[in-house]
Amino acid sequence: MQHTPDLGKNSLGKPDPWARFRGLAWWQLVLSIVPILLLPVGGVIGGAIGAAGLFANLSIARKPFGTPVKVLAMLGVVFASYLGYLLVAGLVHNLLNG
Predict the structure, then answer these.
(1) What is the C-alpha separation between 81 and 71, in angstroms, rounded?
(2) Are 47 and 36 a contacting pair, CB within 8 Å?
(3) What backbone phi and psi angles, to 5 degrees, belong to 18?
(4) For residues 33-48, b (16+ Cβ closer than 10 Å) or e, as one string?
(5) Nearest alpha-carbon partner for 51 in 81, 21, 89
(6) pTM of the shown model
(7) DSSP H or E segment with residue 50
(8) How many CB atoms are closer than 10 A to CB 21?
(9) Residue 85 near residue 66 (C-beta atoms within 8 A)
């Protein structure tokens, strides 16, 4: 019986941190990475919301939906990430300076 390699591990048996990104189209990679751009803008809050958006978009990219549905869903996640950051940052700002 032939042994199939685990694509989530590298040749040394260690987990491959890039396995989730492999095999995606360029537009799926771009839409997946856009939410994490909140990290330099929003610090910990932006990074947490951006990471949630990144993982949500990676999950959507792997679903068996049609391309238009994936694009709209992933754009929705990007929009929700930025809107969520603005709402949370505004709330924190008002609590600290209100």
Answers:
(1) 15
(2) yes
(3) -100, 5
(4) bbbbbbbeebeebbbb
(5) 81
(6) 0.80
(7) helix 38-61
(8) 14
(9) no
